[in-house]
Amino acid sequence: xxxxxxxxxxxxxxxxxxxxxxxxxxxxxxxxxxxxxxxxxxxxxxxxxxxxxxxxxxxxxxxxxxxxxxxxxxxxxxxxxxxxxxxxxxxxxxxxxxxxxxxxxxxxxxxxxxxxxxxxxxxxxxxxxxxxxxxxxxxxxxxxxxxxxxxxxxxxxxxxxxxxxxxxxxxxxxxxxxxxxxxxxxxx
Length: 188
Description:
Shape: globular
Strand order of the largest sheet: 7-6-5-4-3-2-1-14-13
Number of domains: 1
Structural class: mainly beta
Distance between the termini: 13 Å
Strand content: over 45%
Number of helices: 1
Radius of gyration: 16 Å
Largest sheet: 9 strands, antiparallel
């Protein structure tokens, strides 16, 4: 078991307000994130993820609290690109997604990195099950990762936005800093 913490830096006027604390083990993650939306509205996101022995997501459970509002989303995956809700409804819109990307957390950027084991200079495209908090909406989004150096990756959103970021990672391939979005908090 190891733990990792990041502080969000994306909300103008609320930079460094909040904290994500993730507990990681070989087959999953358990996290709580306290942050503010870009409009300064505080929220809490709690999520658990489970993956199989080759790093494919098998389950995700998310809960958001914002004021008196509470939202939940439970997802299951067969690890081969078929997704369903916790109560068994098939999610055809996520067909073909192996990995999950949860906004706002840098943890899920590590999932395709861990699974793909890219060589330096190698680029790979992914179809991600993209979850947006605090709304807990989900959709499929194309993304790409390129390994630029031993501990540096280029992330590209392929949804037409043109967004990209250089992501330095530690020896466990966990994001250290995500420019203008997250900063790793040093802990013992």
